[in-house]
Amino acid sequence: MPNSSNYSSKYETLLAVGQLGGWEYNVLTQELWCNTYYFEMLGRKDHTSADWAKYPIKEVWENWLHPNDLENAKEYFSDFILNPEIEYTQQFRMLHANGEWLTILSRASAMRNAEGVLTGMIIGTHLDITQAQQLSENFSITQIEFEKTKKQVIKDNAFLKAILNSPKDLFVLAIDKHYNFLGFSDSYIPFAKNFLLKEVVVGMSIFDVLPEVMHATAKASYDRALAGESFVVSSNFVTPIGKRLYYENKYSPIIDQHGKILGVTLFSNDITLLKEQLEETRIVDMRYAALFDGAEDAILIADATSGHLVDVNDKACELFGYTKAELIGMHQTKLHPPEDLEMVGELFNQFTKTNSYQSVDVNIFDFEGKRKPVRITACAPFRAGKYLFLAAYFKDLTKERATIEKALTIQEMLSKAEGIAHVGSFEVELPSGFAVWSDEMFRILDLLPNEVVAHTDVFTSMVLPDYLEQYKKWILKESSIEGESKPIEFQIKTPKGNLKHVIVTGVSYKNKAGLIYKFIGVVKDNTARIETMESIKLQNQKLREIAWAQSHLVRGPLSDILGITKIIQDNVANIQEKEMLISQLHNAAQKLDQVIKDVVNNTGSL
């Protein structure tokens, strides 16, 4: 210690004012001196034997160090002793008498003499910085929490702004009590520019932006909100560019923490597209009703899963004889005869799995139990919400079947009539020559139906050479003139080798372009008639021969007989002459008999 009492007094005063625990360490003797406050700082005043007394370093320093700080503190102090040129400053924790750990800031310096040579003495101080450390830690924690809060506020603001700006059809306005903009979402800027033809800025009056026709209505809504009311109203207006817009507006007052109303918030949702969609839906519903109820055929809509009817039109009610209320909810199998249910069930399953239209002809039962033929045409199933439906058209085939049966009957009768009259019909497409022949036409040509493809070349190949040139000229002429043709008669030779006499006539038709495109005609088999005429000619020849024989051959013998019998009857001949006359009479009778036999034979040949 310095011998100067003044120096010692100042030294102690500085330590006391600075609330520093003083210590001195002799490196050479390894002796440690501590002042009284060194121990008071640690609540260990009872360890003090005298001010600046000498103590073992282990007892008054090492034993009170925190176990986690002990080795580092000793090592740092040893390094300083070996290299006293560096500044000695370190922190460690020491045990207070009450069991708490104090944070101590230890500083020291190696002493030198007037020549600057180390004396081996180290003078240091201990400063209790526990509170400062706690304040620093608390400050750090506070700073960290502040940064977290700041980041969260920034994040929340960004999130709120993103929420407000993300909807394309929604914009938010904040307006003060003087109807000036306090703020607005980003979506309002392009809206004002594109539809209201205005550039908006904060502080601008909203009435400088809105069309004049909206001022009164808008002000009334703002005033309601400024009076403390929250409400929703719908509005529409025509923009300066001529487009009508529809909006749903929600007004609310802006209220501070003291309950004072500062302005108005307006959430304005553009529902123009929704309105247009609703209008389109209304039009679609009207079209659906018009097509559904105005259809000529019955339409039934069934649940594709259960098979129960969910909707029918008026024609369905007419077809089945039930009311709409009776049909809706009925299972589709109740509409068919029992013997058709298995087939109808399979068809229903097929219809529910198809991607295109399918048709099938089946029978149904109406309200009175009458069986009716129908054609069911079903489209691919369609989905409405979470449900799958199947729509089917039921066409009543009763009249069609009757018409077909009548047509078949007429066709059968026509076919029989053609057979009786030996007249075949045909229809030829021009200039291709492909044709449609009736069954009688095939019979006339000694062909079976569908044995060959009907064509004019097939018929032309049967025309006999003597008539071919005449026939071709007739075809060329008649295929260039519209209307009924003149008949032509000629002979053909069928594939079976039969010669037939035929007569052909018909009618030519023109298309819209004025060209002959079709020839419809008939072919009459005249062979039997020609043969009949030839037979009649032969009969007439025979009759003429008979007439000649009657007038000549019969009259001769008959005259002889009449003359001889007259002589005998008048008794003008004697017996000998009568015998001769009788002989002559016999000869005349034989001649007459022979003539009669010849006449009979000729008559039999007819």
Outline of the structure:
With 606 residues, the chain is of the alpha+beta class.
Describe this structure in words.
- The strands form 4 sheets. Strands 3-2-1-6-5-4 form a 6-stranded antiparallel β-sheet, sandwiched between helices. Strands 12, 13, 14, 15, 16 and 17 form a 6-stranded antiparallel β-sheet that branches. Strands 18, 19, 20, 21, 22 and 23 form a 6-stranded antiparallel β-sheet that branches.
- It has 17 helices and 23 strands.
- The chain is rod-shaped, with a radius of gyration of 67 Å.
- The N and C termini lie far apart (187 Å).
- α16 runs antiparallel to α17.
- It is an alpha+beta fold and 606 residues long.
SSE diagram, text form:
Blueprint: H1 5-17, E1 20-26, E2 31-34, H2 36-40, E3 53-55, H3 57-60, H4 67-82, E4 88-95, E5 101-112, E6 118-128, H5 130-165, E7 170-176, E8 181-184, H6 188-194, H7 215-226, E9 231-238, E10 244-255, E11 261-270, H8 272-294, E12 298-303, E13 309-312, H9 314-320, H10 324-327, H11 341-353, E14 358-365, E15 371-378, E16 382-384, E17 387-396, H12 398-421, E18 423-429, E19 435-437, H13 439-444, H14 456-460, H15 465-478, E20 483-484, E21 488-493, E22 499-510, E23 516-525, H16 527-570, H17 575-605
Antiparallel strand pairs: 1-2, 1-6, 2-3, 4-5, 5-6, 7-8, 7-11, 9-10, 10-11, 12-13, 12-17, 14-15, 15-17, 16-17, 18-19, 18-23, 20-22, 21-22, 22-23
